[in-house]
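Troubleshooting log. The previous structure file for this entry was overwritten by mistake, so regenerating from the original sequence record. Sequence copied from the archived sheet and checked twice against the printout by T.R.
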Amino acid sequence: MKYTNNLNLKKPESNDFFDQENHANYNMDVIDSSISSHSADNVIHTSYAVNTSASDSYIITIPGITAYTAGMIVSFKATIANTTAATLNINNLGAKAIKKNVTADLETGDIVANQIVQVIYDGTNFQLLSIPSANVTANSAQTLTNKTLTAPKFANTGYIADTNGNELVKFAAIASAVNEITVKNNTAGSGPEIQASGGDTNIDLWLAPKGTGDVITNTGLHARVLGAGPTNGRWGQFSAGSNGNVLLGHNCYIDANDANKIKYKHTHASLGARGIVFDWGGQGTPMYFDMGNIATTAGTAFTPTFVKMYHEGSPGVLSLASSGEAVLLTAGQTFGGLTKTGFYMGAFMADKPPSTHDWAYVQHIKHNNVWAMQIGKGFHDADPMYYRTKWSQDGSTAIWGGWKQMGSGAYVVSNNVRETILATEYNNGAANSFRYIGKWIPKRDGTVMVKANIARSGTGTGNAFLYALYDRASTNVEFGAHKIHENIYSPLIDSIAVGSYLTANLNGLYVDLGYASAPGYIERTALLTVKAGHPVVFVLFDGYQLAYCNSIKIYYDEI
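Regenerated output below.
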């Protein structure tokens, strides 16, 4: 008796007695048992069914499966695409998660509608054997020509490599992202774009260097950072030259090949160009220019007229930007040594405005190097305002005048000679004669000091007198402690010239500046209270001999 190699079926030989029960029926029973065991073993073969669920929880029915067995492979037709993590339930044995890459939940679109999906049970979950529809897997280099990638996915920190396998473009993701970058090509004459896009309305575009690195454009190129684009003719950009020239330009830029040349950026019928230079030719002061609304041609050079931009922080301009204070002068500096317009302050300054206090504040107004004015005062509220001017007679050497008080516009007595009425010698011509030798018209009300040199021709009875009289068209006008009569001052207004002799008696009608009782000049002084626009006339007299006068000077300050 012989037997088969696999199922051990009996093979009677010619000399064996054939028994129906022991031979034919036996073999049929062995075959039936083997086929039945194979049909019941879901690990050995793959079963198939069609999904009956309308969600990510897939449901199928396969006859003969009564339990999940590790290694069991099942194929099913997914009638609906997954939108999130998915499960599979066979014969109501319980839903088991479908995983990819061993432990990862499925993502939206990994299973598409009507896809044949194959899974294997690992004892806990069903692992996806089918390649997810959203993934492309290649174990060797692949060339994709004319292939459309609708939504290729890169793992977080995944990257595109170069031909050497080095990272070329790396991707990083965050959870619940709503904004992204759009890369856009463009038509002839317009550059490609990298745009911020996404769900938000206003989105920044970040270029983040690593560590202390910078964001740098290519040599000779300029980054457009302002404006709405070329469609409406408004453009703005920064540009810089290798020599330190820097420009924030509106429709203009520094030529990359000539750092001292500025060119129009675009062609426009009436836009013109304007800009701010932060440094030009090493002058170190911000300046601006405006070419006006003129026609421009792209690439054409032009020569702007720069205007300095004064600002807080410029030396001598208003104040320091950091503190808002006036510029503080230090030891060794003086207000008279200032050269730039601005507000200044200092203590114990030798040339400060008159004050009994240490601190003084001065505004310096410069016209040029030889013409300037200063306004200043001491710290205390009671200190008046003063001004002074610097000027030059020859256009080269300039000196500061004295501080003059500001305020009411009145004369006050001082030791400063302001006007000279008489600089030549007069005499009264004869004994007992009156001679008109000078006139002064005040510009302010107030009190002044008059100094005159008076002399007489000899000794003896009498004195030489100098009288100061009001020249007014009104009788009995107060002048000091005396009165003035009309027949004295009226002829002096129009018809009487300086040097004329007078015949009127002046007794009691004058202010006596003093007298000389002996030969030789004597300086005499008197205080006069005057009114603006009311002339004062000076008359020389001696009742016995000749009287002389060779100098009359007016001393005052203005407040």
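The chain has six domains: 2-40, 47-128, 154-216, 224-308, 327-407, 413-558. Archived copy saved in two places this time.
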